[in-house]
Each structure stands twice: as C-alpha cells, then as structure tokens.
Amino acid sequence: MSAGIIKPSLILTVTAFVAAFALSHVNKITAPAIARQTADREREALSVVLPGFAAGNEKTDGSGDNAFRYWEGEKNVDDAAVKAYAFITSSPGYSGDVKSMVGVDSEGKILGIYIIEQSETPGLGARAAEIASSRTIWDIGKILSGKLKEEKTHPWFQRQFAGLSAGEKIKIEKAGDWTPAKEQALLEKNAITAITGATITGRAVIAGIEKGYERLRYVLGREAAQ
Amino acid sequence: MNYLSEFTKGIWKKNPILVLGIGLCPTLAVTTSVSNAFWMSIAAAFVLTCSNIVISLIKKIVPSHVRIPIFITVIATFVTIVELLLNAFQPAVYKSLGIFIPLIVVNCIILGRAEEFASKNGVLASILDALGMAIGFALTLFVLAFVRESLGANKLFGFTIIPGMEPSSAMIIAPGAFFTLGLMLWGMNKINSRKK
Question: Taking CA atoms, what residue in B is nearest to A36?
Fold first, then answer.
C-alpha cells in the first residue's frame, strides 16, 4: 500500500523539480531582456505624456503595494520655467489591472496618457493600446520597397485624454470609435469616447487617472509644506 | 503504423477544431486579427510539439493515476517558457495576446493529444501528430481571422483595406466568431458528405 503512494509522489516531485529547474534557466536568460523592455517602455511613455518637457529623476512615495512613482518635468516657455508631472497608476479593468502613465500640468490638465500594461480582451479592451494606422493595404508595395517609413503614431484611445482636466470628473460617451472630427465636442464635455464593447476598460483608465491625480496632489502638497 | 497519415490526419480528417471540436476558447478569442492568430498558432505549435515529445518519452515511468498532474506540469512549463520568450523578444505580441498566452495551459488540444496520443505512441509518431494538429489548428485560425479582421475591422495584417469604410463591428466581437466558425463547420461537413 505504501509503495502505491511513495512511487507516484516521488515521480511527481521529480517532474516538478525538473520543471522548476528548466524554468529558472529560461528566466535567467529572458530577465535582462524583459527588464530592458520595461525600462524602454517607461522612457517612451515619459516622452509621450510629458511632450517637450525634460523629465527629472523618478521619485517614489510609500512602499510595497502602496508605492506611488512620479516624475517632475520642466520646460522653458518665454523664459519662465513651466512644471509638469507624470505618474504611474493602475486600476482593475475587465481582466486584470490596467497600468498607465499619466502626464499633467500644474493646473491639472492632462498632457497625455500611455497604457504601459494591460491584459484586456484582444479585439475589445486591448484596443485601448491600439494604434489607428492611416496606412491601407494598397500601400503594401510602397512599404515593401521601403518608401513608406514605419509611422509611430499614438494610439487613438489614449490620445483623446490629452487636454482633459484630471481634477474634474471625466465622462464616457458611447459614440463609436474616436475620429479627429469628434475631438472638439469631447474636449468641451471633458469626456472620452469608449471603445465599442469595452466600456469597462475606459472606466478603469479613468478611475486610475482620478486615483493617481489625487495621490499626486497629496504628495505635492506635502512636499510644498516641508 | 503509417507515419504519413499520423501527420495529415490533424489537418483535415481529425482537424482539432472543426472535427474534434476542442480548443475552441483560443480559436474564438484571438482570431480578431491575422497577426494574433499567427502568433497564437506558433505558440500553441511549440507547446504541443514539446509536450508531445516529453510525454511520449516519459510515458512508461508515469503511474497512470497521477498522469494528469504530471502532464499539466509538463505543459505548464512549456507555456511559461513561451510566455517568457515572447515577453522578452516579442513585447508587442505579448501585449496584444495578453491573457491568452498563459491560457494555452488549458487548451484542450494539448492535453487531449497528450492523453490520447503521446502517452500511447512513440516519439516520432507523437511529433508528427503534434505537427499535423498544429497545422490544422493554424489553418482554421487563419481562415477565421482573415474573415473577421477584413469584415470586422476593415483591415488585413493591420492595414486598412478600404479607406473610410465603417466596418461591421459585430464580426470582431464574439457573435462574429461563432457565425464564422458555424459557416466553416457547415462547409466542412458539406464537402465531407459529398465525398462519400
């Protein structure tokens, strides 16, 4: 009877051990590349959310799960230094946290947002990170011959946040996909247009902005008081 | 044993999706674009082939009543390897497939082939079986994604087809996947019944 328990347990243990051993090696090979990707993404995100600003060093408030990371950016406008801030925030979406970086100026106007990490449904919520490409399939000849350069445009869903006020409630309109023609009307209402079939993702991004902006004001207020 | 038929059966006669009716979750979920379908096929083919090889090698030492946890451990290991590799070297793909990479663990095609084929056959036959099934899976995904991306997003391989046309977004959400798959099943059965 005991042999009936020991042998299978032993084989299961050995299998798990071999699996863990193999994975630790793969992890060792891929970890530097993954870390580099994350750092690249954050640098790219900073340049998107603080356009034209020179971003300072990363600052942290709190620790562990409560850690809040933010950056201070500066640029000169008419010989006067203008400040702006970027912070990382996350909020639960449809399937897991949506992590984004948000840039705001000193009045709370959003300069840009950048979704760093998300695990939303491909084709629905994941379209929050989608790039609206102006290329059509008929351009394929030009692309293959290298005449048309790879364009790096900012995803439309994220772009519509620029110019909104982070201090006020950001509303969601269900008016189909974003087009440049809708931009002005949405800005006036302090609203965004949701991704078709993925309103939850839009709400998550907005909740993240609200939460992060409140934290930023608290941290900056404390800094000023010191 | 006829090795050629072990290879070709997965493509048509025992196509995992259209005939066996397994692995439908990733099929319906990731076929919103051809590029998603392509990378899902590559990832699933890698996991399926590797796990079939390992399982056919260890089939004699695995006690039958703990075989499922052992198979799952083997499969999960290869899935984690794929996940780490994609995250490190294909971050855009990793971002767009998201949750469906770790979910390959529960893709029934992989556990199904391990249980039904690799645990009963030799290594070479298991490799051929895995490759055939992977090709059958990939072709089905490609056709589905081709139809859904062109009608539902007015795009192919990420490029717009007809500038300015409003795509029918029903094709990109779940019902579009079911409609297309249903039509494919009907077409396949029609062809097969005519053969007889």
Answer: B88
| Residue labelled with tokens 């391989």 | B157
Domain boundary assignment for chain B? 3-195
pLDDT of residue B176: 87
Residue A16 lies in a domain: no
Partner residue opposite B66 with nearest CB, options A12, A95, A196: A12
Q: Report the pLDDT value the prediction gives residue B182, as an integer from 0 to 100.
A: 93
Within a domain: A17: no
CA–CA separation, A172 vs A162, rounded Å?
15
Q: Which residues of A touch B158 (CB under 8 A)?
A: 133
**ipTM tops the 0.95 cut:** no
Q: Does the beta-carbon distance from A11 to B70 stay under 8 Å?
A: yes
Count: domains in chain A: 1
Please, where are the H alpha helices in chain A? 2-49, 140-144, 156-159, 183-189, 199-225
pLDDT-based confidence at residue A3 (cuts at 50, 70, 90): low
B122 vs A142, more confident: B122
User: For chain B, give me the number of helices (H) and strands (E)?
Assistant: 8, 2
Residues sharing a CB contact under 8 Å with residue B58, sequence separation 6 or more, in sequence order: B70, B74
Whether residue A24 is contained in a domain is answered as: no
End-to-end CA distance of chain A: 72
Alpha carbon of B46: minimum distance to chain A alpha carbons (Å): 15
CB-CB: which of A12, A34, A133 is closest to B160? A133
C-alpha distance from A45 to closest chain B C-alpha (Å)? 15
User: How far away is chain B from the Cα of A214, in angstroms, using its nearest Cα?
Assistant: 28
**A151 assigned to some structural domain:** yes
B165 touches chain A (CB under 8 A): no
The predicted-structure confidence for B128-139, as pLDDT tens digits, reads as follows: 999 999 999 999
Domain span including residue A62:
38-225
